[in-house]
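hey team, just a heads up i'm posting the complex here instead of the shared drive bc the drive is being weird again. everything in one block, sequence lines first with there labels, then the predicted structure for the whole assembly after. its two chains so it's a bit long, scroll down
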Amino acid sequence: MHEAPLLRVRDLTKQFGEACSSCDGGENLEKNYCPTCGTVYACQNISFDLYPGEILGIVGESGSGKSSMMQCLYFDSEVTSGAVYLDHIPALAGKNVFALSSQQKRAIRNQQYGMVYQNPIRGLKMDFSSVGNIAEKLIAAGNRHVGDMEAVSKSLLEHVHIPLFRMKEEPRNFSGGMQQRVQIAKALSNNPPILFLDEVTTGLDLSVQANVLDLIKGIQRDLGISMIVVSHDLAVIRMLADRTIVMLNGSIIEDGLTDQILEDPQHAYTQQLVYSLL
Amino acid sequence: MTMLDIRNFGKQFTIHHLEKTIQAVEGVNFSIEEGEFLGIVGRSGSGKSTVLKSIYRSYLSDAGAILYDSARYGKVNLAKATEREMLYLRKYEIGYVSQFLNVMPRTTSRELVEKALLEMGETEEAARCEAEKALDHFELDEALWDTYPNTFSGGEKLRLNIAIATVKKPRLLLLDEPTASLDYASKMKVREIIEKLKANGTTLLGIFHDIEFMEGVCDKVYDMRTRKVTQEVAIASEG
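-- predicted structure starts here --
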């Protein structure tokens, strides 16, 4: 297929610690940890493509490096090495976005990316009103017209089913599911082509989880936004993702069509994961 | 024109936990012409479903080639196609139907069929209209259109699955045991539906444990035991 990826990730590596002669380059590790110097190799040579309009699932156990990878992609933490390309932006074609200035990174974050964290505290200002939270992101993306921003905020909050009469309320008064929906509205407010979702349904009860999943699926269908969905929950991945990557100890061990990963897993760890599914 | 050509197909499963490798099936060869209906028969465990799931790429094959003549890409080996190519083909060209429903929870029958159309880029208006036609065409009781399919009978789930798959007007439709565990009346309905699909020019590949039931509809039969294709005419004269 002559289809160009929206986001290309190449050899993304994130390590915590200085590395030593024993573990340099990821040798002699216990899982992702060097017993000699204590360096943690959170992500090792992660490479993948994200295509327009698709939901890419990333599954793996706690500590497999999923969230570290998302934080690097969203510039929340510094990568150790590796590259990300956003070739659909003419000015950035062929350029590694990790090597850009912090100002340029901020612009990418504000205009190209949306992020929904597992913990709404990370994505929302809990003592700002919900409308104010969205306005904050809109201002960061360059909006200045108060009337417009209020209108956009209202329509977004309505889209994620926050009742109109509660829109001026602070998210700290909301339930977990509502907070997560406000966070999704905020992440969508600058119309980003790429949305990162990090364990967004973890900790929500089943019916609320189904609501959030419906919302995400609807956003993909109606707005055509590409998403990377990180979850340890195979059921969530099965409902959302077309393609899935399996991570273990900081590396990608398997990738494929989601139903193939579930029905014909190849790697020993993926098999264990799938066979554990209730 | 040959729509699907399976050459020396083989598939094994390695279960790491048990340190076991099981050869599920090997040495399968058959082909289907455009507009034909080929039935696969064989006892349970002979690898019928493995063949079908490997064509749809729910399974990764180990040996041989699965050559499909795509409207978009020309000849592609489904065993080696990229994931993105497979997703495109599943969306626009190849459908898969079984009695098992694997769908978004809390979604009504009507919404499921509409979604299948919306993801192909149809407008909401067209999707609504086409969905109703399909549900009606495959004789799903109108009372069930706006309910969740979790509690549907096997036959109803199957007909809903057929509606979801066929509104996309796939060129090739894979039917995984569509008549298993159905009573006589439901089976008759499935047979009628398959006749309708065939009349529309859909190329069909189906697994049946009771192929006699499909007599007169199937053009060819592939027997997993003898590894041979027989023309339907031959079966009729044997019986």
